[in-house]
Amino acid sequence: MEREIVKDKNSSVIAAMNLNEINLDEGSCAAWSESYYGEQTYSEEQLLKLAKRFHNTKRTYLLVDPLQGKHIPVSPNECLRMLRTLGTMLSDEFPSAKLVVGFAETATAVGAAVAECMGRDCRYYQTTREDVEGVDSWVEFLEEHSHAAEQKLAADKFAADLDATDTVIFVDDELSTGKTLNNMIDRLITFFPQLANKHIVAASIINRMSDENIAAFAKRGIACRQLLKLENINYTEVVAPMVIRGASELPEINTADTLSAVNFIRAEDYASPRTGVRIGEYIENILTRHDRVISNDKRMIPSGRRLAVIGTEECMYPGLIIAEQYENSGAYASVRFHATTRSPIGICEDEDYPVTNGYKLKSFYEKDRQTFLYDLAEYDSVLIVTDSAPENMEAVQELAGLFRYYGCSEVIVERV
I need a labelling partner for 188 at 20 to 30 A (CA). Which of 309, 374, 388, 408 fits? Predict the structure, then answer.
């Protein structure tokens, strides 16, 4: 694998760490959960904060999960404990499942963690809204309430992966009516009639589906499983009185010397979950690549610092498992993970409101697309983990400059 390293003159010192010590044998996630997580249960108070969407008339409220690592900074261990609890529950009940599909953008890491718990040979796909090269066939469907409704699933290798399993697990962060999943399954059966004869599982962190909709799923042979079952409450009137504002424009930033970037030129056979991956190989490649990055320059991210690891839009799981390794090292004052997003969320400083600041940013993936990052805080070092093309340096400089504005002395970008 060829590598290109670009650093600024302000890079600091890091102690050598081995971030590739992970056992991805069959059932390893279940073993971790039994020994470390125990009989973990989650409450509504832990998993649900209510926010108001900014200028979205399709659905005015947004359920924000404080542990999911998307909109709110979180300890990577706390996030992965929740995700692997869901995955272990599913692997215990459906051990023969060898195909998992996660929904973009919010549930990409949720789906990957579930696939991880199904064993290293489990195939994992994430739906996407991105243009992806080298794919001949897509299955398109709608997530109708979303700010970006169109989604698609790479179909080139899906039939072979479908034939290799008797159970398919579809994973979202929240199921409210099940309409998005129904849309997707209907479309998939058109392309892949054999799906109708498979066991189908609809898995989520939170399930708010009505008894009628769950019964309708059951008639189709779709089983619902979740960490937390809640009533399907319409929160429109609850959020109506909330006084919100949109995300802020970027502050005045001196962009000179803002970036210490670590860029990898990926091999031609680089595997992406947008086109389907074997989850064990995918995780090993991410951690091995990261180990090479820090081994190449031991001045990066010195111990004792407050560290944030930031994912970009659909690319969440690589940053999350890298952040977990940093947190588990015990070498840092704190480690937090969250990600940029395409979702416009209202900002409010009221007590208990989950999103108290946010900024508009250029997307790492599309020049004219607007994205956001919420709940910024002060860190000493920030590691941005992305699978976007290395050419889009303007977006990189914006995000790096924003963290420098918040007092961060080291910003690094790692391409996975």
Answer: 388
